[in-house]
Design goal:
mainly alpha, 2 domains, 76% helix
Length: 106
């Protein structure tokens, strides 16, 4: 007999989880992106070095947040909470950066 008591959310939640091979591929991708970041740091690309390294870091952060922290499979409320925390953190870092740069100018 089939179990018709499962809700659509439970069935959908069950389908989204990946196996060890998928997470191993994500991990290998993170290692490759780290190696790319190290390689870029050794090449003089002028003003493009830091933005490119930050872009790669952002991609790595999104992979970790979405897959290893399982945010991709979570509810929209949790996703918005994580986004809000990230925005607040970015604002704090920016304002602290202003303080550092203003202090150096004096």
């Amino acid at each position: 007999m089939s179990n018709h008591g499962n809700t659509h959310a439970e069935e959908h939640h069950h389908e989204e989880h990946h196996g060890y091979g998928f997470f191993t591929a994500i991990w290998i991708g993170l290692i490759a992106l780290t190696a790319l970041t190290v390689a870029i740091a050794g090449i003089d690309m002028g003003v493009y070095t830091v933005p490119l390294a930050l872009l790669i870091a952002g991609i790595k952060a999104m992979l970790v947040i979405n897959y290893f922290m399982h945010i991709k499979f979570d509810t929209p409320l949790v996703k918005w909470f994580v986004i809000a925390c990230g925005v607040i953190f970015a604002i704090v870092v920016i304002f602290l950066g202003f303080d550092v740069f203003i202090g150096r100018a004096l």
